[in-house]
Each structure stands twice: as C-alpha cells, then as structure tokens.
Amino acid sequence: MKLHLAIEWFLNPDHLPFIVAQRKGIFEKYGVEFSLIEPDEHYDGLEELKKGSIEFATNEPLHLIEQFDENFLSLGIFFETKRGVLLKASSYDKLKNGESITVTTPVSNETTNAIGFEIIRRFYAKEGVDVKPSKVTFVPNGFEHLKYMNEGADAGWLYFYNFEGIEAQHEEMEVLYLDANTAGFSNFSALDIFVNKSFYQNNTSVCEAFITAVKEAICFIQKNPDDAMNEYYTYTDTQSSPLMDDILRATIECFNPTFTSSYAQELPILEFFKEIGITTLDTQRFKTAFLG
C-alpha cells in the first residue's frame, strides 16, 4: 500500500524526517511505500485529507482548529519552533510614541492579521503601551521577510526562528523576536501530522508503522546531523551554504522523536485562539481529533 503525505506548502528543512526516512530506507524497513506531495496552496493537503484521497498531511495546529473536520486525526506535533513577529529594533519606539508601523506578511487575511496584531499588542502591553489596531498595517508580500524589512517594512509576521531568525543573525540585522516567550501566548508554531480518521481506524498497524519510521528518522537526524543535511541537499538538488547549513542545524533541534497524539498538549492553543475570538470550536469536539 502506497502512503501519500501532503506537506503544508513548499518543501523545506521542516520536512527533513520524511526525506531521511525515504532516502535511508527507513520507510522500506517498516514496509512503507511513500510518496511526498507538494501542494499548490496551503490548504490543499487538508482538503484532500478530508476527502480521503490521501492518507496523511502536515500542517500547523492553527489549521486543525481553523479547518476542523470530523475526519481529521492528529498523530502528534513532530516539529516545534519559535514564531511570531520579527520587529526591527530601530522601529521599536514607533508604537510607544504613537506612530504607525507596517508589517510584511506572506499571508494577509482576517484570521492571520488578527493573530499577528494580538502578538504585537501583548508584547507592548508588557511595557504599558496600549497599541490600537489602526496603528498596525499588514502588507501582503512574499516569504522574504528580511528583504521587505530592508526595503522599509518595520516588521515581519509569520517568521520562523529556524529560518528568518537565523537569517537575521547572518545579516546582522538588529531585531526583536515577538514570540510565545516574549509576548505571552501559547506557542502554536509547530507542525502536526494528520491522518484521515477512517483510514486510521481501518489501517491502524500501517499508520503505526509510518509513525515509527518517522520517529526513527528523527533519531537518525539528531545523531547524524551532517549526514542528514547532505541527504537534504541531494534530495532537493541544492547547494550547501553557510546560511542554509545554519538553518538546517537550527531546524534539526526542533524535531521531537517522541511525539504523540495529545489533546492536553494542543488544548492551550485552542484556548488562546478562542480567547482572541478567531474560533468558537467546542473543546469536546476538538478532543475527538486526538488519540489521547
């Protein structure tokens, strides 16, 4: 049986466990025939999973909540990093002084903008500053946060520490990281493995073999980082560089080889999004998306 997994967007180091499991024969060891799908749009994988046309998908916990469906089953968070708003140090005082800021973002819509603003609001509230929505403008751009910040944007929303955080260090850009630790919210910057619930119920042993292989791949990656990095460059047909090497090393630290399907782990994320008014999903209904 061939298993199909759709990633959440374009292929990148966050998907290293699937690359290593495939290239190192770990999937084969557990009898898993595997195909990785790179979707055209962010929600395509979840839509196909919902319909039952694929077996697995990766995406962020936010989208389990935002796109909730009875056919979704979480098998656990295998990757977690810091994420939020990357603010230029030179722009920090603008909101304190009642000025406005512009925030570049690759995804601008009512939901994501509301989350980005809440992170900014909470960060400044700790300083005793009440930031009004009218003072923060989200500008839709590409994924190159630092490019647009260098061109004039004050901040970048939807940054990932293992990517743009590392890139900012390489460019020696002075920035502030507005994330779960500094702004005070439940960290939702993670990737979950979702399975079609009906498929899981009818093929539990196959799904368990798949997850076992992914966990073994993560263990291999963390024990053999240089080997794993070489596999990434070979698979993606890209060249090593000091920046990408550091991005890969930072990403490797984000993988969890003991991940499990846990309602308790992801409930705080649901509660945060309910608190800021972007979902009304019932907690008991949400609980049905987990094994434990």
Task: Write structural notes for this entry.
With 292 residues, this protein is of the alpha/beta class. It folds into two domains: 2-80 and 190-287, D-Maltodextrin-Binding Protein, domain 2 (3-Layer(aba) Sandwich); 83-184, D-Maltodextrin-Binding Protein, domain 2 (3-Layer(aba) Sandwich). 47% of the residues lie in helices and 19% in strands. It is built from 15 helices and ten strands. It has a five-stranded mixed beta sheet, with helices on both faces. β6 (101-105), α6 (110-125) and β7 (136-140) form a beta-alpha-beta unit. α11 crosses α12. The longest helix has 20 residues, at 204-223. The two termini are 27 Å apart.
Strand content: 15-25%
CATH superfamily (homologous) name of the largest domain: Periplasmic binding protein-like II
State the helicity in percent bands. Answer: 40-55%
Largest sheet, strands/sense/barrel:
5 strands, mixed
Care to count the β-strands? 10
Shape: globular
Task: Figure out the total of helices.
Answer: 15
Rg calc: 19 Å
Number of domains: 2
* Series of secondary-structure elements, N-terminal to C-terminal: EHHEHEHEEHEHEHEHEHEHHHHHH
Q: What structural class results from the helix and strand content?
A: alpha/beta
